[in-house]
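Q: Convert this sequence to structure tokens.
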Amino acid sequence: MGFPSPAQDYAESRIDLNKLLVRHPHATYFIRADAQYPEQGITRGAMLVVDSSLKSVHGSLVVASPEDEMKLYRVQLSPIPALIAVNSNEVLWTFSEPNIDERAEIFGVVSYVINAMSMGGSSGSTFKLV
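A:
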């Protein structure tokens, strides 16, 4: 026998990424980014967690298919409701109604982005742990 560890009171359960990233399991999809979107912090091949049950708001990053091809857009609700191309900031789709979710064929809202971090090579920067 023995005494229980004093650290046992501070033990945490394992991190479950499904619980952390997926709020609506039947409406959540994982999509790979086919391009790099540096202004959004998305690298090529990043995993996008897309929730089709969420309603887009001004500034939301969404996956939509207004022209029969799934692409990444930024939602703009004012001054004119539109979908903005993520890489070029070009207005690609405008709407006469403020409820663009139905009109734009928005598949879902990007709720999380999971990027791989490159470990190869030297960037010239050094860090010291303190």
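Residues 1 and 8 are 16 Å apart (CA to CA).
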